[in-house]
Amino acid sequence: MVLIEGARIRLNRWQQAAVAVGSAVGALLDPRRADLIAALGETTGKPAFERVLERMNCSPEGRAVLLERPRVISSKVGHAWDLPENTFGAAYAKFMGSRNFSPDDRPPVRFMDTDELAYVAMRAREVHDFWHTLFGLPTNLIGESALKVIEFQQMYLPMCMLSVIGGTSRFNERQRKLFFRQYFPWAIRAGMQCTDLTCVYYERHFDEDLEDVRRKWGIIPAPAATKQNVA
């Protein structure tokens, strides 16, 4: 069993509210602050994470994730870079490598009450790039906003909807039209049609064909758009 690293901080309700408000303001001012976005998700998302935990316990694959507690870190997923090009694992490795991302860059969980909830929150954070890969979404403002719509449908985290509101407020007119005409309706449909993605043991499917796992999990890839339109 892998423990979640980093000291956790217990907060009373007033302290949670203060951290949530401060994190929300800070994240709106600087959306690149992953630590603030993480703190906002934790301090406002406990009921949502509890529901995710309940669903995982009701799913055979979800229970396996909770039992084994896999981590999406370099030492655990590095073999994805050696898999055949058509596989889900290779697609994930290409997604990460083309953007010079590291799976080790996720901030630690600090504000969850129990080890089990802390793991669920960490897991939700770490599978984010798997979802980018599966749905074929870019990491620009439109892509991240669209994925937050799907994440909200899957987990009902308030932070996801706040992120959509904050992200769309920074769109230019062309981006706004593209998002609400194409990406938002697609994200609603994609989030409703796919399986419960919080219960998937992704690492067990790395060597499977990408299109096969998309079909198996009911994934609708994102609509095609030019880089100029989504930048």
What this model shows, in words?
The protein has 231 residues and is mainly alpha-helical. Helix content is 62%, strand content 0%. The chain is built from 13 helices and no strands. The longest helix is centred in the last third of the chain and has 21 residues, at 173-193. Residues 16-21, 23-29 and 226-231 have low confidence and may be disordered. InterPro entries: Coq4, Coq4_euk.
Record keyword descriptors for this entry.
single chain, 231 residues, mainly alpha, 62% helix, 0% strand, globular, disordered C terminus, Coq4, mitochondrion inner membrane, Coq4_euk, ubiquinone biosynthesis
Secondary-structure blueprint of this entry?
Blueprint: H1 13-29, H2 34-44, H3 46-57, H4 60-68, H5 74-77, H6 88-98, H7 115-126, H8 128-135, H9 141-155, H10 158-168, H11 173-193, H12 210-217, H13 227-230
Helix pairs in contact: 1-2, 3-7, 6-8, 9-10, 9-11
